[in-house]
């Protein structure tokens, strides 16, 4: 599914170019559950952004689902991201004045999906995260743990191949964190590939593979 070879990323500052990712090579198969562990500033979020097509590597090769990413236009990247990737961030980024249903609709509106298809998918993903009863509730009426579960449900609405989770339990207590990790751990059995960014070694250990990142270099532990 994912093939990265000798990829690097730099940011430009007044003092010159600052290397963030250094010669990263990585292969990810369909159904993998991979955790990437690193301290703040290690480059893990930048790596996730590049894999998630929110940013680009400066050098190297990146193929996703057989497509050479460097050759794709911004519009084609946006389409690929919407149809094949789901994002779960530490902050939920829900529209809090909207209902759960309205929040779930957003990614499928982009695809101009039918109301029937949206309703079907909303029912499926809410059942998966155990929140069927929240469909018509406003997002701001939910607890933090429930909001993050809705965040996962929204990421799954377009039936993506890849779920990218960046510190999804960072704002949650132990009980809610365990609930979120239980949901993520079940997704590979449903054919999803999961990449988890975390600084929590206990959460990372639940993945099939564990990667470490430090000073922009990635290796398997």
Class based on secondary structure composition and strand pairing: alpha/beta
Number of helices: 7
What integer value in Å does the Rg equal?
17 Å
**Main β sheet profile:** 6 strands, mixed
**What percentage of residues falls in helices of 4 or more residues?**
25-40%
Q: State the end-to-end CA separation.
A: 21 Å
Instruction: Catalogue the unreliable spans.
Output: none
Beta-strand residue fraction: 25-35%
Shape: globular
Number of strands: 10
The overall pLDDT, averaged over residues, is 94
SSE sequence, one letter per element: EEEHEEHEHHHEHEHEE
Order of strands side by side in the largest beta sheet?
6-7-8-3-9-10
Description:
It is a single chain. With 221 residues, the chain is of the alpha/beta class. It is built from 7 helices and 10 strands. It has helices at 44-51, 74-84, 100-110, 115-129, 144-156, 174-186, 201-204, and strands at 2-13, 16-28, 33-37, 59-64, 67-68, 85-89, 162-166, 193-198, 209-214, 217-220. The chain has a 6-stranded mixed β-sheet. The chain has a 4-stranded antiparallel β-sheet with strand order 2-1-4-5, with helices on one face. β9 and β10 (217-220) form a beta hairpin. The longest helix is centred in the middle third of the chain and has 15 residues, at 115-129. It is globular, with a radius of gyration of 17 Å. It starts with a strand and ends with a strand.
Ordered list of secondary-structure elements with their pairings:
Elements: E1 2-13, E2 16-28, E3 33-37, H1 44-51, E4 59-64, E5 67-68, H2 74-84, E6 85-89, H3 100-110, H4 115-129, H5 144-156, E7 162-166, H6 174-186, E8 193-198, H7 201-204, E9 209-214, E10 217-220
Parallel strand pairs: 3-8, 3-9, 6-7, 7-8
Antiparallel strand pairs: 1-2, 1-4, 4-5, 9-10
Helix pairs in contact: 3-5, 4-5, 5-6
């Amino acid at each position: 599914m994912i093939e990265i070879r000798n990829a690097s990323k730099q940011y430009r500052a007044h003092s010159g170019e600052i290397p963030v990712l250094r010669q990263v090579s990585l292969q990810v198969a369909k159904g993998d559950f991979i955790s990437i562990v690193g301290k703040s500033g290690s480059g893990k979020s930048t790596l996730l952004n590049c894999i998630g097509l929110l940013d680009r590597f400066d050098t190297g090769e990146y193929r996703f689902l057989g497509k050479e990413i460097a050759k794709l236009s911004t519009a084609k990247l946006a389409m690929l991201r919407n149809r094949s990737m789901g994002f779960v961030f530490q902050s939920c980024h829900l529209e809090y004045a909207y209902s759960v249903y309205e929040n779930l609709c957003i990614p499928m509106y982009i695809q101009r999906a039918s109301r029937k298809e949206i309703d079907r998918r909303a029912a499926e993903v809410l059942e998966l995260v155990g929140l069927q009863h929240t469909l018509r509730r406003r997002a701001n009426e939910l607890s933090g743990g429930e909001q993050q579960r809705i965040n996962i449900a929204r990421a799954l609405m377009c039936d993506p191949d890849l779920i990218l989770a960046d510190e999804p339990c960072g704002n949650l207590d132990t009980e809610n964190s365990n609930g979120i990790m239980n949901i993520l751990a079940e997704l590979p059995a449903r054919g999803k590939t999961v990449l988890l960014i975390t600084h929590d070694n206990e959460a990372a250990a639940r993945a099939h593979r564990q990667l470490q990142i430090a000073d922009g270099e990635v290796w398997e532990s």
